[in-house]
């Protein structure tokens, strides 16, 4: 039935596809100034995956983050609800979304939305958006 929760195999495959999309987007980043490529992917309630990468600009800080790029691709495709996020970056430290991107994600996702933080090798750690942005200001604060 449509109301049944997805089984673990289906959920795992969906998360793997989301993570793979973020890692692939990371490889396409335009980051000649920081040399720090980041990719992100969002899965919507329809099951579609939209990916984006960071795009830098010589007029710092006029570039944009991978998460913002993925959200823009989602909105451009006519979707409005994020059910899972993956962010991939290089280096040894976790590449979690910046503060601005956490707020951008909150516009389209709830506190329980999983955010999978990855490196080139795959998943490193998962959080909920609420863990990354506690007590967030969101559409509900404005009656939306």
What's a concise summary of this model?
By secondary structure, the chain is of the alpha+beta class. It is built from 4 helices and 5 strands. 31% of the residues lie in helices and 23% in strands.
Biggest sheet strand line-up: 2-1-3-4-5
> How many helical stretches?
4
Intertermini distance: 30 Å
Q: In CATH, what is the homologous superfamily?
A: Cytidine Deaminase, domain 2
CATH class: Alpha Beta
Radius of gyration: 15 Å
CATH topology: Cytidine Deaminase, domain 2
Range of helix content: 25-40%
Global geometry: globular
DSSP strand content: 15-25%
Fold topology:
Layout: H1 8-26, E1 38-44, E2 49-53, H2 66-76, E3 82-89, H3 99-108, E4 114-119, E5 122-128, H4 129-132
Parallel strand pairs: 3-4
Antiparallel strand pairs: 1-2, 1-3, 4-5
């Amino acid at each position: 039935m449509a109301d049944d929760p997805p089984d673990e195999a289906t959920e795992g495959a969906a998360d793997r596809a989301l993570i793979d999309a973020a890692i692939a987007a990371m490889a396409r980043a335009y980051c000649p100034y920081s040399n720090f490529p980041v990719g992100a992917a969002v899965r919507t309630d329809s099951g579609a995956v939209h990916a984006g990468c960071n795009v830098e600009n010589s007029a710092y800080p006029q570039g944009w983050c991978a998460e913002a790029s993925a959200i823009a691709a989602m909105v451009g495709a006519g979707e409005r609800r994020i059910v899972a996020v993956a962010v991939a970056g290089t280096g040894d430290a976790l590449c979690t979304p910046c503060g601005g991107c956490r707020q951008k994600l909150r516009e389209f996702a709830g506190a329980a939305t999983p955010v999978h933080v990855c490196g080139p090798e795959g998943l490193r750690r998962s959080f909920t958006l609420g863990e990354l942005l506690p007590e967030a200001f969101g559409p509900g604060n404005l009656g939306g």
